[in-house]
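Researcher: If only I could read C-alpha cells as easily as an amino acid sequence. Walk me, if you will, through where the backbone shape changes along the chain. I have put the entry right below:
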Amino acid sequence: VSFPELPSDVDTETPSWRTGLHSDWLLRVGPAEYRIHKVLTGHGPRASAFLCSAFTTGQQLSVGSAEDGCSPGACRAETDLSNILPEQVWPFVGQVLDFIYSQHITITIENAVPLLRCADALQIRSLFLVSGEGINELLSVTSAPKFLGDTVALLGGELAEQIQTSAQNVIADSFDSYSLEDLRQIPTSQLVLILKRDDLSIVHENEVFDRVRALAEAMQREVSTEDVTQLWQTVRLGALSNGYFVKAAQVDAIPKMALIRSKVLHRRCGNNMLQGPMELQAMVDNWPVGPCRPRKPFKDLVCAVLYSVDTEARSDPDVERNITAATLVVEEIEFLGGRAQIENIFAGSPSARENAEPINMDKVDVAFVLAPWTPSDKRIVSLINFVDNGGGAVLLSFIGGLSKGTWLEHQYEPLLTGKVGDNTPYEDVFLATAGSSTCSLDCSDSSIKRTQDTVTPPRILCGVDSINGRRRITSKLVDGAKVLAKWSDGQPLVVQHPSKNVFSVSQRVSRIFELDDDLGHDDTLQLVLNVMVYAGKESKRLQGQAGRHTVIDSITGLRPEEDQEIGAFITNAGGVNVSL
C-alpha cells in the first residue's frame, strides 16, 4: 500500500516557526511576522506564560472573526508584541523562538541583555535563567560597559539594579584599563555613579581629572551642559596635586571658590568628614565640595612596611628619620583604604631576633622595604620567599642595605646604587622632564620639575609634581630591567625588575619624605604609594586573587519554587512588568 508524501516529510521533521507549516498563531513584532504553534510556544518547559495567556483569550486578540467571513475555527489569531517589546530587542525575537522550539541558544555579549528583556516580558522562565547565568559567565572588564548600557536601556526594577551594580563594580575595579571610547559607551548617569566611588581603580585623583576632561571634550556636543557639569563634580578637587590644581582653575565649568574651599577642606576633614545629608549641603556656587575624604586605591590590599634601623644608635639623626618615614607610610596606606603592619627587620632589633614573631608574609600583597641598615638573614629569606610566590616589593634604594648576600647574588633588586668619591660635591637633582635623559646644572626652565607622567598605565608618577635630591650616585641595573622614571641627571629614579614583581625607588636625600625648606615641595611619598598600589594589584593578579564579580546569586535568587505559579503580567504603555 502506497501512502502519499506529506509536506512535513519534505520540509521538516518537527514543526518550525521558520516554515510556518501547520502554524495556528501569528506574532507581529514591528514589520516582522512569525507564524508559530500554540502547542509548542504555550506549553512545555520553555513555554511563554505571556503567550499561553494570549492563547486562552484568543477571541479578544484574534484578527479574523465570523463577521469578517471566517468560518468558526478557521480564523488565525495574532498577537502584536510591538508595544510589549522595545524596538532594540526586535532583532532577537527569532533567537527567542529558536530557544522555545529547539532549546538552542548561544548567549553572547550582544544578545544577553536583550534576551533577558524578552524572557522577562514574555515570561519565559527557562530563558530568563539561561540569560541571567550567561550574563554572569560573560561579565568581564570587556563586557561590563556594554551590559551596563543595555541594562539601562532595556531593564528596570530590582533586576536592573543587580546587573548594574555588578557591572559598576567591574568597571570601578579596572577603571584605569578603559579607553575613552569604552567609557563613552556608558550612560552618563551610570558613569557619574562610577566616578563618585571611593574604590575607583586609580592611583591619584589626577587620573579622574584627566578622564573627565577628555570625556567633557568628547561629549560636549552629544550631551547637555548639565551632564558635563555632573561629570566635573565627580572630581575631588581638594585631592588634586598642585600642578593639576592649577589646571582645574583654568576650567570654566568649575567655580573658583568651590576649588579653593575643596583644597582647604580636603586634608583637614579626611576620613572624619561627615557622610550623608550634611555632606550634600556643603555647596559653594551650587557646587558640592564633598566628599572631602580620599579615594581608596589601597582597598583590599594588605601591606607590610619593613624598615631596618639600628634603634640603639639614637645619636644618629637618620634613625628617627627612617622610623618616622616608615610610620608615615603606614598611616598613608590606612588613610587610603588599605591595611598595614610595620616591623623593624634590622639584624640587632628585638623584633628580628629568633624568638620574635615576624609578620606573616603569606597574608601580604605588597611590602615596602626601607633598609639603610642591613636586615637580618632570616627576614631577607622571608622576603625572598615572598617575592618568589608573586608578592610585590617596593624598595627604597640606599647604598648598602639589602644589596648583599643571597638577595644580591640572585639579583632580586633591579637597581643597585653606589656612592661616588667623598670629595665629590653635592648637586640639586629633581624629576626629569618627559623625553629628556639629562639636564645641566644651569637648567633654569621651571618645567623641569614637572612630571614624566603619561595617560597610559602604569601611572606611577600620577600626582607627582616634583622629586628632589642632592646626593651623587652611580647606578647599575639588572639585565632587562625597565626604567620607569629618571632623575634630571639621567640616573634611574624608578626601576622595574624584568621578571619579578619588585620595584626600586632611588633615594638621594637623608631626610626621607621631609626635605629642607630650600629644596621646596617633594612628592617622594606619593611616588612610593603609587608604586605600591601597582605592585599590590600585580601581586593579586599573579596569585589569582583578583576579585570576580557575579550576579548569579542575585539572578538565581529570583528562581521560583517548582510548585509556584508564574506571576501575573501587567501590560501598559511602557511594556510589561513581570514578577517571575
About this structure: The first strand starts at residue 25 and ends at 29. The two ends are 53 Å apart (CA to CA). The chain has a mean pLDDT of 80. The longest helix spans residues 317-335.
